[in-house]
From TrEMBL:
It comes from the Bacteria. The chain crosses the membrane at residues 45-66. Pfam families: DUF2905 (PF11146). PANTHER family: BSR5223 PROTEIN. The keyword Transmembrane applies. The keyword Membrane applies. Keywords: Membrane, Transmembrane, Transmembrane helix. This is DUF2905 domain-containing protein. It comes from Marinobacter azerbaijanicus.
């Protein structure tokens, strides 16, 4: 159990460093077809449906590979 927590922590730190120091790698996130972005004069609603489905599929594949 502790091994998985350490791996998850290292992965999150790595992802955080990538987002901080190389934001151009993730400029596509939130701009996929199917992501909802509604703007009005005073507010904005953003629902990244397609991006979240893509992340879910990738994480499912990765976790299934580790559990076998």
């Amino acid at each position: 159990m502790s091994r998985w927590l350490i791996i998850a922590g290292v992965a999150l730190v790595t992802l955080g460093l990538l987002v901080h120091f190389a934001p151009w790698l993730f400029h596509w996130f939130g701009k996929l077809p199917g992501d909802i972005n509604v703007r009005s004069d005073k507010s904005q609603l953003f629902i990244p449906i397609t991006s979240m489905i893509l992340i879910s599929i990738v994480l499912t594949i990765i976790l299934n590979l580790f559990n076998r």
